[in-house]
Automatic annotation (TrEMBL):
SUPFAM superfamilies: Chemotaxis receptor methyltransferase CheR, N-terminal domain, S-adenosyl-L-methionine-dependent methyltransferases. PANTHER family: CHEMOTAXIS PROTEIN, CHEMOTAXIS PROTEIN METHYLTRANSFERASE. Pfam families: CheR (PF01739), CheR_N (PF03705). Keywords: Methyltransferase, Transferase. GO terms for molecular function: methyltransferase activity. It comes from Lederbergia graminis. The lineage of its organism: Bacteria, Bacillati, Bacillota, Bacilli, Bacillales. Residues 14-266 form the CheR-type methyltransferase domain. The keyword Transferase applies. The keyword Isomerase does not apply. This is CheR family methyltransferase. One of its GO terms (biological process) is methylation. PROSITE patterns: CHER.
Length: 289
């Protein structure tokens, strides 16, 4: 046998070099978005961003990430398409119904003791979970003294959330979620059927403020009794998760409640000792320090 490099080693070297080049291209694209447009996605989870970037490369009928970078810097419409790819909009009404049931049973009694209630829904997407919370609070007699701040980085999804119109075919699933979450009325009482879907009644949004807020760069804007940020942190890397946890901690009043998604936790973060668990399974925490 000779001392030459085997074909397998050569292939591995080529793959390694291609991955390294790909990583550099992605870093350049994200840095350009930040420096030229002010959108900071540099600390989002790498593999998730890679998939979304390649989806946009292929959708634009391009072959390289560098060619996408060139187009994004010169074509505002391409930029908007890429930003839409980056926006995480997977949601539904009363998503994870047991979370809302636990909230109803364990958090609502605490909220009853406040003269007024401020809730921040961070990363609210198209608003389904915000409407869900409004319904829950309405049924518990708390909505009239509550202000809900529903924020997202994406202006387009906020516009959809304000409209309150959702596909009719989703209502069967949403009704099931609502009942599992402890709902005690006819779910259909909350909406009317319109020509392009169903529209939820305007009284549900009378105490909701929809606004743009970027968890990456924006600061706290109030002190809250409840902060809900569910299934958003999973798309951030560790350093950005740490930064956002600090933001939430600063934004919560003493004994305020933090609600996270089922794959998220405050464990292994710098704020772990500052909370006590209200519900281990449903990821509800109370600020105690």
């Amino acid at each position: 046998m000779g001392n030459g490099t085997s074909m397998e080693e050569t292939m591995n070297t080529n793959i390694s070099e291609a991955e390294e080049l790909e990583k550099i291209e992605i870093q350049l694209l994200l840095q350009a978005l930040y420096e030229w447009y002010g959108f900071d996605y540099r600390d989002y989870a790498y593999n998730s961003m890679k998939r979304r970037i390649w989806h946009r490369v292929h959708s634009e009928k391009l072959t390289t990430i560098t060619s996408l970078l060139d187009k994004v810097l010169r074509d505002p419409q391409c930029l908007q398409r890429l930003l839409a790819d980056f926006s995480i909009n997977v949601t539904e009404m009363f998503r994870d119904p047991l979370f809302f049931l636990e909230f109803r049973e364990k958090v609502v009694p605490m909220l009853r003791t406040y003269p007024s209630i401020r809730i921040w829904h961070a990363g609210c997407s198209t608003g389904e979970e915000v409407y869900s919370m409004a319904m829950l609070l309405q049924e518990e007699g708390l909505y009239d003294k509550t202000k809900i701040y529903a924020t997202d980085i994406n202006a387009n999804v906020l516009k959809s959330a304000k409209n309150g119109i959702f596909p009719l075919e989703y209502m069967k699933k949403y009704t099931s979620n609502y009942l599992q979450a402890g709902g005690n009325r006819a779910f259909s009482d909350y909406y009317s059927v319109v020509h392009n879907g169903v529209k939820f009644h305007p009284y549900l949004t009378k105490n909701i403020v929809f606004a743009q807020h970027n968890l990456v760069v924006d600061r706290s804007f109030n002190e809250f009794h409840v902060i809900l940020c569910r299934n958003v942190l999973i798309y951030f890397n560790k350093s950005l998760q740490k930064k956002v946890h600090e933001l939430f901690y600063e934004s919560l009043g003493m004994f305020g409640i933090l609600g996270l998604g089922d794959k998220e936790t405050i464990h292994y973060t710098d704020v772990t000792s500052r909370y006590e668990e209200i519900s281990v399974k449903q990821k509800l925490y109370k600020k105690v320090k």
